[in-house]
Q: What sequence folds into this?
C-alpha cells in the first residue's frame, strides 16, 4: 500500500477528467476525498517531524472526514441492503392496495404522477436508511486521529513498524514448516533456516571472490559473462600449443623466454608444483596464446558500471588488414618487498 498510494490519485483522476455539468461537483469532492488519505500516508512516512509537519496530517484527516459522505453509498453491507429491500417491499404492498381501489376513479395522467411520487418516496426512504446505517466509524479510521499525539509522545511511528517481523516470520517460520514433515517441526525449522543462512553466506563470499581484480576469464569456457569486473582473454591462436612455438608469432627468441622461465622457476621452489629447470622440459610445457584482453575499468563514481578497455597484441600478424598491433599494458609484478 505504501508504494501504491502515490498512484491512486493519478489512476482515479484519469476516468474523472471530463465530467458533465451535473457530475463536476461530485467528481471534485471524490478527488479531494481520495487525495487526503494519500497525502496523510505520505506524511506518515517522515522519519522526523516538526510542529508544522504534524499539522499537515491533521489537516488531511479533517478534509477526509468532510468529504467522505460521497462514498457512503459504497459502504452498504449485505445486512443493510437486505433491510432496505424488506422496507421497500413493505412500502409497496399498501401502495399497490391503495392504487387498486383508486384505479377506476383516476385518469391515466394522474396515475403516472402518483407512480412517480411513489417511486421517489421509495428511493428517498432507501437512501435515508443507507445513509443512517452506513458510516466510517471503524477502528482503523479512528486510529488515524491519534497519529500526531503518538508522534509527539513516542517519536517516529516507523520505528514501531511490524513489517520486518512479518517478513521474517514468513521466510524463517512458514517456509521451514512447509518443508518439514510436521513432526518436531521446530527443530526442522531451525535446521532449514541454518542451511539457508550458510548457503547465503557462501554465495556472498563467492560474489566477493568473483569481483576480485585478479580474476581472468577465458573465451569459450562459458564463464566470461559471470561477472562484469572479470578480465577476459580472447583471440586464441590455434597453432600455439607448446612454449617453443610463441616465438614464431611474437618474434621473440626462445632463449629469452627460457631465461625468464628459469628465473621464475627459482622463485617457485616452495610451491607444491614447481617448474622444471631443464630447458628441454620447459619447451614442452603446454601454452595458449591470446591476442585480445578485455580489461573492465570502473566508471568514475559508479563502481558498479564498467567500461571495457581492449588491449591487443598480434605480434607479427596484421590487425584488421593493417600493420601489427601491440598495445602497452602496465602490470604489477611481485609484492612490496620484491
A:
Amino acid at each position: 500500500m505504501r508504494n501504491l498510494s502515490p498512484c491512486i490519485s493519478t489512476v482515479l483522476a484519469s476516468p474523472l477528467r471530463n465530467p458533465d455539468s451535473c457530475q463536476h461537483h461530485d467528481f471534485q469532492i471524490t478527488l479531494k476525498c481520495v487525495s487526503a488519505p494519500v497525502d496523510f500516508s505520505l506524511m506518515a512516512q517522515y522519519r522526523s517531524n516538526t510542529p508544522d509537519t504534524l499539522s499537515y496530517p491533521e489537516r488531511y484527516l479533517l478534509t477526509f472526514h468532510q468529504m467522505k459522505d460521497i462514498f457512503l453509498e459504497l459502504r452498504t453491507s449485505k445486512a443493510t441492503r437486505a433491510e432496505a429491500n424488506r422496507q421497500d417491499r413493505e412500502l409497496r404492498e399498501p401502495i399497490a392496495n391503495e392504487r387498486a381501489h383508486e384505479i377506476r376513479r383516476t385518469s391515466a395522467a394522474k396515475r403516472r404522477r402518483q407512480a412517480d411520487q411513489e417511486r421517489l418516496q421509495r428511493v428517498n426512504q432507501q437512501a435515508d436508511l443507507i445513509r443512517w446505517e452506513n458510516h466510517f466509524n471503524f477502528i482503523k479510521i479512528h486510529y488515524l486521529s491519534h497519529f500526531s499525539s503518538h508522534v509527539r509522545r513516542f517519536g517516529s511511528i516507523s520505528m514501531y513498524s511490524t513489517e520486518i517481523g512479518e517478513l521474517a516470520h514468513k521466510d524463517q517460520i512458514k517456509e521451514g514448516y512447509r518443508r518439514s514433515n510436521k513432526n518436531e517441526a521446530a527443530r526442522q525449522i531451525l535446521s532449514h533456516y541454518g542451511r539457508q543462512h550458510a548457503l547465503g553466506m557462501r554465495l556472498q563470499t563467492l560474489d566477493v571472490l568473483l569481483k576480485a581484480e585478479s580474476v581472468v576469464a577465458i573465451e569459450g569456457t562459458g564463464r566470461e559473462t559471470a561477472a562484469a569486473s572479470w578480465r577476459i582473454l580472447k583471440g586464441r591462436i590455434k597453432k600455439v600449443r607448446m612454449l617453443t612455438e610463441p616465438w614464431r608469432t611474437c618474434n621473440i627468441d626462445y632463449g629469452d623466454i627460457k631465461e625468464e622461465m628459469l628465473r621464475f622457476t627459482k622463485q617457485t621452489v616452495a610451491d607444491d608444483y614447481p617448474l622444471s629447470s631443464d630447458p628441454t622440459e620447459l619447451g614442452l610445457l603446454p601454452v595458449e596464446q591470446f591476442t585480445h584482453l578485455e580489461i573492465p575499468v570502473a566508471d568514475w563514481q559508479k563502481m558498479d558500471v564498467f567500461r571495457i578497455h581492449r588491449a591487443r597484441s598480434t605480434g607479427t600478424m596484421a590487425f584488421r588488414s593493417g600493420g601489427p598491433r601491440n598495445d602497452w599494458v602496465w602490470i604489477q609484478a611481485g609484492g612490496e618487498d620484491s
In short: Residues 216-312 form one domain.
